[in-house]
Amino acid sequence: SDTLVDRIFREDVDDAINDLDAIWIGWRDLSENRKRALINWSFQCGMHVMLQFKRFWNAMKAHNFAAAADCMEESLWFKQTQPSRRSRVVRQVREG
Questions:
Q1: Tens digit of pLDDT per residue, the chain (96 long)?
Q2: CB–CB of 72/90 below 8 Å?
Q3: What is the pTM of this model?
Q4: Using only C-alpha atoms, what is the Rg of the chain?
């Protein structure tokens, strides 16, 4: 049912948010667009994949968003993700 689908989706989004909190609680202080990008990315990849992006997280924690976006563009994730989605997520990280 639609209700069940909505509930499962909300639980998955909550899991993505909890994963982000476990990686770096500072993500919550970012702009709304950057938070949306990180939730989207976490939802798609999960914590285990995101933890592999060490340079990305170092750049994010330093608020070097251009470098963080560059890290995303250099990744296998970028090559494997639908162009419209990857472009939107990377742009949100880069531009806020």
A1: 999 999 999 999 999 999 999 999 999 999 999 999 999 999 999 999 999 999 999 999 999 999 999 999 999 999 999 999 999 999 999 999
A2: yes
A3: 0.93
A4: 13
